Amino acid sequence: MEVVLGVPFGYDASNEVKKLLEDFRNMVNFCIDYAYRRRVTSYARLRKGVYDEWKRRWNYSTHFCHSACKIALAILKGHRRKHKDDKPEARKLFMQLDPQLYRFYGDKIRISVKPREFLYIDLKYGEYQRKFIDAWREGKLKTGEITMNETKIVISFKKEVDLSNPKDWIAIDINESNVTAVSSNPHILKIETDLRTIHTTYFNIIRNVQRLRKFKPKTAKRLLKKYSGRRRRKVADECHKIARNIVEFAEEHRMGIIMEDLRGIRKRIGYGRRLNRRLHSWNFRKLQFYIEYKARLNGLPVIYVNPKGTSSLCPVCGGKLAPNGHRLVSCECGYENDRDVIACLNMLRMRGAPLPLKALHEPLTVEVRGRDENL
Ligand SMILES: [Zn+2]
C-alpha cells in the first residue's frame, strides 16, 4: 500500500514565480470558462477542447495545461456541489504541478516552465522537513505532485508500506486525564496528560475575558484572540507529545493500533451541557488524528472499533462489571482491573487480537513514559 503525506516548505517567491502563479490562475480561469460554457465535465474533452487556444496564449510546457484542466474541473465540481449555478472563478494564487514538471533536489526544486527553461526555488525547512529530505536521499521516499502558493510549497512524499496484518496490536483508550494503551505482547502504557488542566485553565480565562466584552470590547477582542490561540497551540503540542510516545512504542514492536470510533461520543455520554462543552473542546478526535497520522507515517495499520460496552463488560466472561473502588471495576467471575485497562482489553478482544492472557490475572508491566519537552 502507498502512503502519501504532504509536507509544507517555506520559500520566497521571486517575481518570476509570482508571474508564473498569476499565469497559472489565468489558465485555470480560461479552462473554467471553456468548461462552463460548453458544460464539459470530462478531463479528456476539456483538455482536447482548450489545448490549441491554450498553446497560442501561453506556450508553457504542456503539463501546465493538464494541471490547469484538472483544477478547473475540481473547482467546477465543488461549485456544483454547493448547488450554485453561476460561473466560479479561481481567485487565490495557487498551482499544482505533476512530477513531470519539477525536480526535487532536497533543499531546492527546479520547475520546468518551457522546454529548456527552468525556475530554481530554494526551500526553507526545519527539523520536521529535514526528516523527509533525509529519507528521500536514502531512497526510502519518492516525491509526487506539489502544490504551491505565494508563501509555501507542499511537496507530497510517497512511501510503500506493508500494512499486512501485524502479529501484535495495541489498543488505546483516551479519557479525561490519561491515555491508556494495552498491547497484546503484553505491555501497559499509561500517559498522564495535561489536557484537562489546559482546558480548565483556558476555559476560565476565556470566560472572564468574555465578561469584559461589555465594558471594553476592543481589549476583550484582542485578549480573546490571544488566549484562544495560546490554548490551541498548547492542546496541539500536548497531543503531539502523547501521540509520539504511543506511536514510537508501537513502532518498536511493530504493532497495529486500535482505537475507539468516537464519532458519537458526545451523544452517548449525556453528562449534561457543562461536561459536553468540555468534552467538545478537549478534542479526542484531534489526539486520535495525530496518532493515526504518525502511525501511518511509520507504516503501522490503524483500525477503529465500536466502543459500545468496552468499559462495562468483562473481557474474560463477558459479564457485567461493577465499580469497585476508585478506578477499579470487578466482575462476578472474580476478574478485576483498572477500568481503562479493561476498555483496552475489550478493544483487543473485539479485533480478535491475541489477548494478553497472562496479564489478565497478574499485573502487567507498567511503563510510564514522561512527556519530553522538545517537540
Ligand atoms: Zn467476568
Automatic annotation (TrEMBL):
<protein>
    <submittedName>
        <fullName>Transposase</fullName>
    </submittedName>
</protein>
<dbReference type="Pfam" id="PF07282">
    <property type="entry name" value="Cas12f1-like_TNB"/>
</dbReference>
<keyword id="KW-0238">DNA-binding</keyword>
<dbReference type="InterPro" id="IPR010095">
    <property type="entry name" value="Cas12f1-like_TNB"/>
</dbReference>
<dbReference type="GO" id="GO:0003677">
    <property type="term" value="F:DNA binding"/>
</dbReference>
<feature type="domain" description="Cas12f1-like TNB">
    <location>
        <begin position="284"/>
        <end position="347"/>
    </location>
</feature>
